[in-house]
Amino acid sequence: MAVVDERRFRMTIMKHTILIVSAVLSLSGCGVYRPYSRPQVETDGLYRDIPIEDTATMASLSWRELFADAQLQTLVEKGLERNTDLRIARLRVEEAEAVLKNARLAYLPPLSLNLEWGVSRRGGAVSNTHTPGALASWEIDIFGKVTNAKRGARAALEGSRAYEQAVRTRLVATVANSYYTLLMLDRQLAVQNRTLATWEKSVKVLEAMRLAAETADKPIAEV
Predict the structure, then answer these.
(1) Average pLDDT over residues 65-88
(2) 92 within some domain
(3) 200-210 tens-digit pLDDT
């Protein structure tokens, strides 16, 4: 019996050992992602050398610096205030910021408070009892669920901000293009009006010359 009990004890120890090793291996194999590391890329000699003083481009300037016309600036400001697409883009940015904030708060333990209240009676005396309680729980991010959610929320926020900037840039460009096109058409209309006035004067002069020529060809008696 002692030998049988010893074998059973050894078998139990071996089973527990196998279970522990399997659990450790499964936990170590659950890392389905790796931290991103930027690959090393050799860029020497691929591009021409750009002087430092030439690195400032139009992309680094605001639209107010590009378009100094006061009337155009007023039109652009009204467009930015009243455009529906830009409002939707701003709401998307606010939504993405709220999602990112919620993802950051996921690292904190959730807290719950409860209050127990009771009444007891002893010897004709009534007493109230209050028992406050609090509970906090913490979830270990073993599988990277919270981390991946945070990274996804940050990427979504950056995408929303880029979309808002694209909508803003397109709107400013559209207003400026329409404004300058209208100015060009006004100038062309003014030129056409001046040309028409010049042609009308030329026609009057030619008509006067024709009448003068006809009068000169008539006999004096007829005159």
Answers:
(1) 89
(2) yes
(3) 999 998 888 88
